[in-house]
Write a structure and sequence with these properties.
Strand content: 5-15%
Helix content: 40-55%
Distance between the termini: 95 Å
């Protein structure tokens, strides 16, 4: 009897250990949610310097930040520490040309992190290169993780203080998901500080739903706002719940081989960091990035479906952009750029946004539309070559930003000829 009891206890103990290890491993995997309301550390909250009660978050004026993008292995010389600087308008600085209130030509850009140009230096943004092409300052009002909705809100808030002749709205296809979001954690698990306003359509008219977080300290008790977050964030029912891990965690962890691979690569990176040297035989950073892209495929397909089911809201936001341009008398251009996860998928399946750009061009005579994917076509077909080699999110390289600047400059010059 005792051997049987001992055997059962050993099995139970092993099961408990496996459950604990599996839960910890699932916490590492970006495509799995393990908590609805993770505790937010006060220290993390204090570092959230971009909090904005109106927009959720926003770059702050007169700041300079150096960011290690991760473009190196432990023990190697750091090769990609980039500098992000903002001016008194909270626009990323444009080294090529200073602001000139008497300039004959003025240009501004709004959008997400691809507009901001993360992972490159101030003099490697497409705004810098565009300023060189046009010989005028180009304002950069991109915001990390912004959707078309937040970019539009920032435009309406900023434009009266910094009016320009041309406004480029530059976003990625992620906007279709971002405009349906109130709390990013419901779709980007672990992004717990990002609570935002959004627009909904009521009787065909855009109605703004303000952020439920008015003070930064409110983020410490988001569970008290659960009803509002769940009601207005589309992804709670359609993405968070289906990807929420429940017991047995061991089964959830072993459900996909990619879970095991990603966790193993992450552990390998951590070991390299702790020991200060790279382990021979495998590039854990590259392997983890490739694994993450494979884990991202279901999210890309989810976003593709959103363009089919919620294009009406996206179109309404573009219409609002066009109407605001008419009201303020500037030339509007809508630019779709690609995140790396979309570029690799779309190279095989076509654009997830379908004929969006064509429909917008046909609908609005005053709007210029640019599908940047049709302009950025590597000769060898390797779309990954358009992006920084390593780093946090696969943003465009300086060379690609220079190509983007040429495309945008052509738009401005063509309009000048037409006028």
């Amino acid at each position: 009897m005792l051997p049987l009891v001992a055997g059962v206890l050993v099995l139970v103990g092993c099961a408990v250990v496996f459950e604990l290890v599996s839960y910890r491993a699932l916490e590492l995997i970006p495509s799995v949610a393990t908590e609805e309301f993770p505790e937010i550390d006060r220290g993390l909250l204090e570092k959230f310097g971009s909090f904005d009660s109106e927009l959720g978050w926003c770059p702050q004026p007169n700041r300079e930040k150096q960011k290690d993008t991760g473009d190196h292995l432990p023990g190697e010389e750091v090769r990609s520490v980039v500098t992000y600087s903002t001016d008194e308008y909270a626009s990323r600085v444009c080294p090529a040309a200073e602001r000139d209130p008497d300039a004959e030509l003025t240009v501004s850009t709004y959008g997400d992190s691809y507009c901001f140009c993360r992972e490159v230096d101030n003099d490697e943004t497409f705004q810098h290169y565009l300023a060189q092409e046009l010989d005028t300052h180009v304002a950069n009002y991109g915001g990390g993780n912004y959707g078309l909705d937040q970019a539009l809100m920032r435009l309406k808030r900023q434009y009266p203080d910094d009016p320009t002749d041309h406004v480029f709205m530059v976003v990625t296809a992620s906007s279709i998901a971002r405009i349906l979001s109130v709390w990013k954690h419901y779709q980007e698990f672990g992004n717990v500080l990002a609570v935002k306003p959004r627009y909904v359509l009521e009787d065909g008219e855009l109605e703004r739903i303000d952020s439920p977080v008015k003070e930064k300290a409110d983020l410490l008790d988001l569970e008290s706002k659960a009803d509002v977050l769940r009601e207005y964030d589309f992804h709670y029912d359609h993405w968070f719940e289906p990807h929420f891990a429940t017991r047995p965690y061991t089964a959830a962890f072993l459900e996909k081989n990619e879970h095991v691979r990603y966790a193993a690569y992450t552990v390998g990176k951590e070991l390299e960091r702790r020991f200060g040297r790279s382990l021979p035989g495998i590039d854990f950073d590259l392997a983890q990035t490739q694994s993450a892209l494979r884990l991202e495929r279901p999210r890309v397909r989810y976003h593709e479906r959103l363009f089919e089911t919620h294009e009406f809201l996206f179109d309404a936001l573009v219409e609002e952009f066009v109407d605001y341009a008419a009201e303020r008398e500037f030339e509007p251009t809508f630019v779709m750029v690609q995140q790396l996860r979309y570029a690799t998928y779309e190279s095989e399946h076509g654009p997830i946004y379908g004929d969006l750009l064509g429909r917008l061009a046909d609908r609005y005579d005053a709007l210029t539309t640019i599908d940047m994917a049709t302009h950025l076509v590597p000769d060898d077909g390797d779309v990954e070559s358009l992006y920084v080699e390593r780093g946090e999110g696969g943003h465009y390289s300086p060379e690609t930003n220079a190509e983007i600047a040429q495309v945008l400059a052509a738009v401005v010059e063509e309009r000048a000829v037409a006028e």
